[in-house]
Amino acid sequence: MRKRPIPEATVARLPVYLRSLLALAEERRTLTVSSEELAGMAGVNAAKVRKDLSYLGSYGTRGVGYDVEYLLYQITRELGLTQDLHAAIVGVGNLGRALASFKGFAERGFRIAALFDVDETVIGTEVAGLTVRDLDELKEFAAEEPLAIGIIATPADGAQEVAERLIDAGVKSILTFASSVVKVPPDIVVRKVDLSIELQILSFYQQRREAISSAREANRVLEGELPGAAGLRTGAAEHAASFDERRAGTLHSDRR
Amino acid sequence: MRKRPIPEATVARLPVYLRSLLALAEERRTLTVSSEELAGMAGVNAAKVRKDLSYLGSYGTRGVGYDVEYLLYQITRELGLTQDLHAAIVGVGNLGRALASFKGFAERGFRIAALFDVDETVIGTEVAGLTVRDLDELKEFAAEEPLAIGIIATPADGAQEVAERLIDAGVKSILTFASSVVKVPPDIVVRKVDLSIELQILSFYQQRREAISSAREANRVLEGELPGAAGLRTGAAEHAASFDERRAGTLHSDRR
DNA sequence: CCGGGCTTGTGACTCTATTCACAAGCGACC
DNA sequence: GGTCGCTTGTGAATAGAGTCACAAGCCCGG
Ligand SMILES: NC(=O)c1ccc[n+]([C@@H]2O[C@H](COP(=O)([O-])OP(=O)(O)OC[C@H]3O[C@@H](n4cnc5c(N)ncnc54)[C@H](O)[C@@H]3O)[C@@H](O)[C@H]2O)c1
Ligand SMILES: NC(=O)c1ccc[n+]([C@@H]2O[C@H](COP(=O)([O-])OP(=O)(O)OC[C@H]3O[C@@H](n4cnc5c(N)ncnc54)[C@H](O)[C@@H]3O)[C@@H](O)[C@H]2O)c1
User: Fold this and answer.
1) Residue A28 contacts by C-beta under 8 Å, 6 or more apart in sequence?
2) CB of A128 less than 8 A from some CB of B
3) Which residue, of A5, A30, A234, B44, is most buried by count of CB atoms within 10 Å of its CB?
4) CA angle A110, A114, A118 (to 5 degrees)
5) Residues B86, B79: Cα–Cα separation, whole Å
6) Are B152 and B178 in contact (CB under 8 A)?
7) Can you say how many angstroms the Cα of residue A208 is from the centroid of all Cα atoms in its chain?
8) Cβ atoms B179, B152 nearer than 8 A
């Protein structure tokens, strides 16, 4: 179990633990934290926390828990957050602007170093303290100030070309918001955030739920339990259960 | 294999197929599409496409492929996209504004029906043709115009409370952008989109790559292959390989 | 320095997802 | 009407993730 390969699913949860630990460190109440407690904060179960952390090494103390500061450091290191990474946003529209103005990235060690667009009317304007540059200057810019991460916030059409330009400029990690599929060589990591897909997934489960509850209702009516269609409203969020959020990134480059 | 349970992973890919099929339908070149071709467009492999589609039923024709229109219809239906779903955005800041102004949702069958905030200076202003309402009016509003989906775009602090309010107003599907963990009863589906986590995941693989390549470089230097540190730049995106993007949602309600 | 309580770390198991590989079935052409 | 090429649909094999449950190990109090 020791050494190398940290499962993708674990990598995707490390940032969640990190955030929980930061909260603990801030309130300075506890110097250590148990897997149970961390699990509660992160919304996962304790066994998972322990297994995840065990991939990093044996950093806990039996009978006690994990030293908050030390674990914080280890996760930070493992995620490569010890140094600020520079990112460029390409496509300064609605979304690009919101991203550029977002303060939270800096806190987490990401520095938005430049904004690029192709629209003449956008180039040269100032957004969140940065001047929007012409996409043509990307390579040149990156040569001077290496960019670790490229963020694509253009419409779907442009995305593939932008990705290629980013790669050509030396960027190896890409986050895209465009709804198109972006294809890249196997040594490049792309993550895609697609809000429409998220909504569609919600729609699927919503519909499923409706199907089930209307079936149940029909049943009850048949069985004479209900007079007609009455409220099926469920109790509010008092006894809110913990809810697992997974976001598994993928590296299988799945070529063909 | 037939009937009911469509795996989560499959659900998450259906929207991708849907989009590919829409593109095909639009260009009206082909009436049918093979799993191979669809796989190419969606950036996954053909076996996966076939298995995914087989969960919906046997909609293909051996030796021929899938009828584009028919498949389109089936996926649309399965995802529950035959009717427009109404969504509300809570938190009209940088991100909320960008979301509200985004045209793409409407195209995909989602209607942003209302915007809510708590900030006096924001309430009453107009954003993307909608007047921002006071969050206190949420329940009332939802009673009149049922909301299928709630989108949380507030800072992390507010998110849990907003979620509870949404649930109280009858919303069963939630998409949150806040970096906090949102806990909900098991009958509510939450999906979380966390951009900072995405960047941190990229950071992890970036760092990993650097570790590997510098190790390799060190090796080469030892073996006398390289004079010093020279360009390790990889070829551009000519022979771009297909790249699998997974986003598995989770429904295990993982309570404790 | 011993025992009890507590919490980690991890093998073993289970469940889910992916991939392989091939028989079955369709259409077209002779 | 037979055969050939192509493509689906799916069992079986494999890989990956999650969960269980417990021995090992630490701390503290006596
Ligand atoms: N706005 C949202 O809330 C939202 C939600 C979901 C998805 N998205 C996705 O994010 C992307 C951007 O959305 P948006 O609303 O900001 O769009 P937008 O139209 O407001 O902005 C796009 C920007 O990209 C620029 N651009 C176009 N082609 C370019 C190219 N080849 N290189 C560089 N820049 C280019 C345009 O000039 C424009 O400034 C889209 O792919 C969209 O599907 C956005
Ligand atoms: N802007 C981005 O690009 C971006 C990127 C990543 C993550 N996020 C996340 O998205 C969320 C919103 O980000 P933002 O940049 O739009 O923030 P913001 O500060 O610009 O806007 C937040 C809005 O929410 C409102 N709000 C605060 N508490 C509220 C409550 N309890 N109920 C209703 N409304 C409330 C505020 O009045 C404000 O209008 C944050 O959680 C942030 O972490 C944003």
Assistant:
1) none
2) no
3) B44
4) 135
5) 15
6) yes
7) 26
8) no
Shortest-distance ligand to the CA of residue A108: 2
pLDDT for the residue B69: 96
User: What are A163's two structure tokens?
Assistant: 């990705």
Taking chain B, what is the end-to-end CA distance rounded to the nearest angstrom?
A: 31
User: At A72, phi and psi to the nearest 5?
Assistant: -55, -50
Digit-by-digit pLDDT tens for chain B (256 residues) are: 445 689 999 999 999 999 999 999 998 778 999 999 999 999 999 999 999 999 999 999 999 999 999 999 999 999 999 999 999 999 999 999 999 999 999 999 999 999 999 999 999 999 999 999 999 999 999 999 999 999 999 999 999 999 999 999 999 999 999 999 999 999 999 999 999 999 999 999 999 888 777 776 676 665 545 443 333 333 332 233 333 333 333 333 333 3
Please state whether strand C lies within 7 Å of residue B19 at its CB atom: no
pLDDT along chain A (256 residues), means of 10: 78 98 89 96 97 95 95 96 96 97 94 97 96 97 96 97 98 97 95 97 93 70 46 31 36 33
Interface of A with B in 193-212 (CB under 8 A): 193-210
Contact (Cβ atoms closer than 8 angstroms) between residue A171 and residue A150: yes
> A206–B173: do the CB atoms touch at under 8 Å?
yes
| β-strands A149-152, A85-90 pairing | parallel
Q: Which two tokens stand for residue A178?
A: 């465009």
Residue A173 has its nearest CB partner, among B179, B202, B254, at B202
CATH of A8-78, one of 1.10.287.130, 3.20.20.70, 2.60.120.10, 1.10.10.10: 1.10.10.10
Domain boundaries, given as residue ranges, for chain A: 8-78, 85-193, 197-255
Give ∠ CA B161-B250-B106 in degrees, rounded to 5. 70
CA distance B225 to A244: 49
Indicate the CATH number of B85-193 among 3.40.1190.20, 3.30.430.20, 3.40.50.720, 3.30.565.10: 3.40.50.720
Q: In the complex, which nucleotide's C1' lies nearest to the CA atom of residue A64?
A: C7
Q: How far apart are CA A23 and CA A41, in angstroms?
A: 10
Residues with CB under 6 Å of ligand 1 are A 90-96, 117-119, 122, 135, 153-156, 158, 161-162, 177-179, 195; B 98-99, 102, 104
Q: Which residues from B are below 8 Å from A91, CB to CB? A: none
Give the pLDDT score at B221.
61
Report the run of H or E that residue A33 belongs to, with start and end: strand A32-33
B130 beta partners: B127
Chain A environment of B192 (Cβ under 8 Å): 245, 247
Q: Is B142 in the pocket of ligand 2 (CB under 6 A)?
A: no
A74 touches strand C (CB under 7 A): no
